[in-house]
Design goal:
Helix content of chain B: 40-55%
Structural class of chain A: alpha+beta
Radius of gyration of chain B: 13 Å
Radius of gyration of chain A: 66 Å
Largest sheet of chain B: 5 strands, parallel
Oligomer: heterodimer
Order of helices and strands of chain A: HHHHHHEHEEHEEHHHEE
Structural class of chain B: alpha/beta
Strand order of the largest sheet of chain B: 2-1-3-4-5
Shape of chain A: rod-shaped
CATH superfamily of chain B: Response regulator
Number of helices of chain B: 5
CATH architecture of chain B: 3-Layer(aba) Sandwich
Shape of chain B: globular
Strand content of chain A: 5-15%
CATH topology of chain B: Rossmann fold
Number of helices of chain A: 11
Largest interface: A-B, 24 and 23 residues
Low-confidence stretches of chain B: none
């Protein structure tokens, strides 16, 4: 469960308990005030009944005295006295009405009975006062029954009301006790629940935060593989943990990438340094001959002896040859640098590859047949026209042929050409039976900065840039170059160049 | 004073031809070898007074030749000057570490080389 949900739930529970307490309080107050009103009414009604009982008794005493006087004397009731007495009766009626205003369901019966009996009594008393001076009128006020009955009813009402007041008081007590109990219980439950929730919340949050902290410390300490596991939370803390894990993944990847980038930059740098060292080495070899022969000839010219002219000429030829080698080497380096910087331009034109092949082989025939090698060539007259860079094509062929001658002794150098009508390509293979290459050497043979396998270039001379240039030219020309070789058995270089489909003769 | 014999080990025809002729002009008797194996054989059989050893050699490189000479009792004191077209500082350290007495970088400074040869022959 998420932290937010846990907090919300806790808050909600506490609010519910609080609401129960408040509700109980209001209900208790309401119930108490209801009962208090009833109690006060009961008490007021009790006072009224007391007052009424006293009024009735006073008036009865008065009437009994008057009645005796009337029967035994010629007493005449003054108008004022009559009015006063009638007013007293009206007051008593008013008291009855006031009692009626306080009547409730539980006292309605007693009040109704009181009303009937008191009215009868009061009516007889009223009649007595009105007809007091009429001697012919017979009074019935001596009859005690209506009075006794009214008194009895009044007492009954009073008892009833006292009983109700006691009941109300009991209800008030009970209500107070109940609300107090509920309030205390609710309060204790709130405290307990809050404390429990708080405890678990703190413990749960602490545990998870500790895990996060530990993870951060270990990651910060360089332990990049560290991951925060078992966070049992699909909410904020779980999100935080998975964000942390994602971050550490990304961090490790970034560092790995950085390391890789640095490693490949270092490798490239080292390769460039090696390349420069090789270039320097290759430049120094012809320079050594040029400077050495020049100095030697200079010294010889200073001698007194006659100059050996044919020897002199041969030595000058060596200087010229070395100078040309130097130039070729510089051209190779420039070519490679042009390719690397994307400045090598292809000049396409239709040309007959057979003618280029034949001319190149003728030109190189002396060195190809040198060291007892046999030369074998296909018939190149029927080859399709290529629309490509003839100069670069020639450069590749010359390079492959020179390599074959360089690494072969008393063997065979063969040049073949085939058209593949399915792939629309021309394949030229230059094979020799020379020293060959290991698989490791083959894998690196076309690479510019990694090639020039030390002992080979030392044994056979050359910068080793030739094949790198061939490879890059081939790619530029939309073709491929591959090698098959085995140590001691020779090498075959296959050059494949695209042919315009229309100029390919149909396969038989 | 007898003519001193130098063994020139160099696989490049032109450089070998040039250097041997200049050394002869300078008054030395010059023997030569074109690869490491020939060189080692020549050192043992002909006992030259000093060896000029190219490092980039076919069959057996100069470092190995130098080590073998140092391991062979009869010839182990023969002075050796390494000749190489490698011009880096570590190449010099490598040459001296392999047991060469001195080191010369191509293109060869010929007067400087003569001085190195004479100093080693005198000591």
């Amino acid at each position: 469960m998420s932290l937010r949900r846990r907090l919300t739930l806790s808050l909600f529970t506490i609010l519910v308990l609080f609401a129960i307490n408040v509700g109980t309080h209001f209900w208790g107050s309401y119930a108490r005030s209801e009962s208090m009103v009833a109690y006060r009414q009961a008490v007021s009604a009790g006072q009224l009944t007391d007052a009424m009982a006293k009024q009735l008794e006073d008036q009865r005493q008065k009437i009994l005295v008057l009645s005796t006087l009337r029967e035994n004397t010629e007493d005449v009731l003054a108008v004022e006295d009559q009015q006063t007495a009638l007013q007293g009766i009206a007051e008593t009626r008013g008291t009855v009405d006031a009692l009626g205003g306080m009547v409730s369901d539980v006292t309605a019966l007693q009040f109704a009975q009181l009303g009937t009996s008191s009215e009868r009594l009061l009516a007889s008393w009223e009649a007595f006062y009105r007809n007091y001076n009429d001697k012919s009128w017979v009074s019935d006020v001596d009859d005690p029954i209506p009075y006794v009955e009214a008194s009895q009813r009044l007492k009954e009402l009073e008892q009833r009301q006292a009983f109700i007041a006691v009941q109300r008081a009991n209800v008030i007590d009970r209500t107070i006790a109940l609300t107090d109990r509920i309030t205390v219980l609710g309060f204790i439950a709130s405290i307990f629940l809050t404390a429990t929730l708080g405890f678990f919340l703190v413990r749960y949050t602490n545990d998870n935060l500790k895990r996060l902290k530990r993870g951060t410390q270990r990651l910060g300490g360089g332990e990049l593989d560290y991951r925060i596991e078992d966070i049992d939370d699909d909410g904020e803390l779980g999100d935080l943990a998975s964000a942390f894990n994602t971050m550490s993944d990304k961090l490790r990847r970034a560092i790995d990438e950085e390391k890789d980038a640095k490693r490949s930059a270092d490798e490239a740098n080292a390769a460039k340094s090696r390349f420069l060292a090789n270039v320097s080495h290759e430049l120094r070899t012809p320079l050594n001959a040029i400077i050495g022969y020049s100095e030697m000839l200079h010294d010889e010219l200073g001698d007194d002896t006659e100059v050996n002219r044919p020897q002199f000429q041969t030595d000058l030829d060596k200087i010229i040859l070395s100078g040309r080698q130097l130039l070729a080497l510089i051209d190779d380096i420039l070519d490679l640098s042009k390719i690397e910087t994307g400045k090598m331009i292809l000049s396409r034109e239709p040309f007959a590859p057979g003618d280029v092949l034949t001319m190149a082989i003728d030109a190189l025939a002396p060195i190809l047949r040198h060291r007892g090698n046999q030369l074998r060539c296909d018939d190149f007259t029927a080859l399709p026209v290529l629309n490509n860079d003839a100069v670069k094509f020639r450069q590749i062929i010359v390079n492959l042929l020179s390599n074959a001658a360089k690494f072969t002794e008393n063997g065979t150098i063969a040049v073949s050409a085939n058209v593949d009508p399915h792939n629309h390509s021309l394949e030229i293979a230059v094979s020799d039976t020379g020293i060959g290459m290991t698989e490791e050497q083959q894998a690196q043979v076309f690479e510019a900065f990694v090639q020039a396998e030390a002992s080979t270039s030392q044994d056979y001379g050359g910068s080793g840039l030739g094949l790198a240039i061939c490879h890059d030219f081939c790619e530029l020309m939309g073709g491929t170059i591959t090698v098959e070789s085995a140590p001691g058995e020779g090498s075959t270089f296959r050059l494949r160049l695209p042919v315009d489909p229309e100029s390919v003769p149909e396969a038989a | 004073m007898t003519t001193q014999r130098l063994l020139l080990v160099e696989d490049n025809d032109m450089n070998r031809d040039m250097l041997s002729r200049r050394l002869r002009r300078a008054g030395f008797e010059v023997l030569w070898a074109a690869d490491g194996e020939q060189a080692l054989r020549a050192v043992i059989e002909d006992r030259p007074d000093l060896v000029l050893l190219d490092i980039n050699l076919p069959i057996m490189d100069g470092w190995t030749v130098c080590q073998r000479v140092r391991e062979t009792a009869e010839v182990q004191d023969t002075p050796i000057i390494a000749l190489t077209a490698h011009a880096m500082a570590e190449d010099r350290d490598k040459a001296l570490g392999a047991g060469c007495d001195d080191y010369a970088t191509k293109p060869i400074d010929f007067p400087g080389l003569l001085e190195k040869i004479r100093r080693l022959l005198e000591s």
